[in-house]
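Hi there, hope your week has been kind to you so far. Please have a think about how the structure follows from the sequence. I've dropped the whole record in just underneath, so have a look:

_____
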Amino acid sequence: MVLGATGGIHQLFDLFLNGMILGAIYVLLALGLNVILGLIGVINFAHAAFYMLGAYLTLSFAPHIGFLPAVAAAAVLIGLLGMATEVSVIRPLYKRIPEHALLLTFGLTLVAEQAVRWHWGDYAESFDPPSFLSGGFSPGGFTFPAYRLFVVGATAVVVGLVWLLLNRTSLGLVIRAGVLDAEMVGALGINVPLTFTLTFGLGSLLAGLGGAMVGPVAGLNPNMATSIIILAFVVVVIGGLGSFWGSVVGALLVGVFQSVLVYWWSPATELVPFLLMAGLLLVRPRGLFGVEGVFE
């Protein structure tokens, strides 16, 4: 194989770009999961259900209100659904062992999958990008599909906004303080349960947003929740539990390695995330950027 050949370079570049798109979707999914797991401590298997529902809601909304409004509406609705879930079924489990929340949220994922099958059917759905994002740019002989650039750009903007929210606003300060010492924050008159509800809603919104944008990249199917949730946890472990930037870097690494290594090794898509995790945990048990008790 001669990688210097023009065809090989173009193919590798295309695979790298595909990996960045996958990585961008993983960023939203893993970041939302890490926000909930790192700040509240809930092992939320229903995160994948929110991701799936965000995709299907966008599919239903887009013909009526347009693609971008559909993405925004789906993400907001999933955020609200996440808040309602936290208040109704997650909050009573905070003082129980973590396995109770894990089993409950896993059950919610199965319920959501059956609801999707009942309403949208058992078969996969294709979802073309909107016409204004269906073209591309070709500088220097390389092609940049417009929708892929949109996904990467939108993810970068969302990551920046979430970081600012958590690190530069009063709400972010309250969230971080409530995680470190909920009793003290409550003694200061701050509504800690509401803070946890908003945090759960933020994580759910990010999952819904990732699902809303994945349709034109990978299509939709009723199994997409169960097939993605383990990968999301793997990305969080690779980046480091409680690490904001670990979620970002870990997701991009997994996406790019999955895509590019297929050029040499066809099983890479399935095995690479787990091999990366296993190799990393041998030398860094807390992941790339994991720091106990800190989310930054």
